[in-house]
Amino acid sequence: MKRSLISDLMKSDIVQTGVLIQGWVRTRRDSKGFSFIELNDGSSLKNMQVLADETLPGYNEVVLKLTTGSALAVEGDLINSPGAGQRWEIKARNIRVYDIAPESYPLQKKRHSDEYLRTIAHLRPRTNKYSAAFRIRSELAYGIHKFFKEKSFTYIHTPIITASDCEGAGQMFRVTTLEPTMQKPVDFTQDFFGKQSSLTVSGQLEAELFALALGNVYTFGPTFRAENSNTRRHAAEFWMIEPEMAFCDLSDNMSLAEELIKYVTAHVMEECPDDIDLFARFVEKDLTKQLEKIVGSEFVRLPYRDALLLIEKSGQTFEFEVPFGQDLQSEHEQFLTEDYFKKPVIVYNYPASIKPFYMRLNDDNETVAAMDVLVGRVGEIIGGSQREERLDVLERRMDECGLEKDSYWWYLDSRRFGSVPHSGFGLGFERLVMMVTGIANIRDVIPFPRTPKNIEF
Ligand code: 4AD
Ligand code: MG
């Protein structure tokens, strides 16, 4: 017998005989002579109501013992449901039990806090909220590949293990096969790769090399940062999408960022309406309006200097001041996106002193052609820039940032042989999932979050 997904059966136009579904029991209700079993198989939020009649083989021994969390296969007929609330139900002809869950199953029918569910992250995908979040996450990933495919970008796999620090922020996890020792200095020539190696913080430098060969490319992979900050928006392991485009300036770069965010938001609204609706009802009341606004409005483009002026003139009291040369804090991002413009804002031309070496120096010699896309609730969702394509300026910036030029010889070669203006950005995938679901904590949008002092599962 062909196995069906509950999500497909729910869309059926006709009654069907002889269907097979498999899933986990959410609830069982008994009446005189029959029971209703709500079965969920993870294909959608919807449960299939299974009608189990007392004439079913093993009704007393099997059906009446079914508990929440038990695993079943049900063979039967898809019939119109006489009850209110659902169009279809399955009248069981045969029920096969894989496993009866004991009373200690932690997901009994009540609402659990996100904090508690994090402690049982191996079971939380069996709840409505988390199954919806991870279906949306999957659909977003597909939407991203679809976007770039339609634009003829080439997908590049950049290394996970690297010997260079793209962001220069010193937040790298070391990769080594040496025995731990307190002795210093460590002799890395004895190590696996013969020099100090780490998990990558960004695939950008390698993506640039490929952009200067293939034109338009992107990466989509895991990145790692040993940032010891326990915030709602930072994880030690997160996924990033990094497009890189040859012959492209900052303005084109901003346009692509805006287009990408709008495209994938519209994509999940179209493909996951029930899952999005769950978040709009139970997690973020304003969600549908917020997403429609993101898709329908033109993003603001605001030079960093003007952002500072707006913050200063706002009349609001902030915990932190922002003198020129400091990064915006989340309270300032919130002011710009939620209070002042009430839509996404792209802040650009940041001071060179707070940005990495690879960003293109502007003619004022003080700012770089950087851009951050800020969105409500989440804050910075994208960071990017036009890249410094002039060899002499790049070398000067590397000296200023204290980088060892010799070990970046391959990167500098790209500025020696056929250098062209090029640009790109990094979109934080978890922050994108937070944006479209309204989920407030990054720990709840990645299956098994890695944060300081937390590496369970
Ligand atoms: O602004 P970032 O550090 O930019 C880069 O890494 C560039 N190399 C990207 C590029 O131009 N190709 O990071 C990009 C984005 C941020 O805007 C944020 O959304 C996300 O990555 N991000 C994090 N997400 C979760 N946890 C963290 N610790 C993150 N750090 C950055
Ligand atoms: Mg950034």
Can you walk me through this structure?
This protein has 457 residues and is α+β, with helices and mostly antiparallel strands. The protein folds into two domains: 94 residues, Beta Barrel (OB fold (Dihydrolipoamide Acetyltransferase, E2P)); 321 residues, 2-Layer Sandwich (BirA Bifunctional Protein, domain 2), CATH 3.30.930.10. Helix content is 30%, strand content 25%. It contains twelve helices and 16 strands. An eight-stranded mixed β-sheet has the order 6-10-11-16-15-14-13-12. Helix 3 packs across helix 5 and helix 3 packs across helix 12. The two termini are 36 Å apart. The structure holds 4-amino-1,4-dioxobutan-2-aminium adenosine-5'-monophosphate and magnesium ion. The site of 4-amino-1,4-dioxobutan-2-aminium adenosine-5'-monophosphate has 23 residues, from strand 11, strand 15, strand 16 and helix 12.
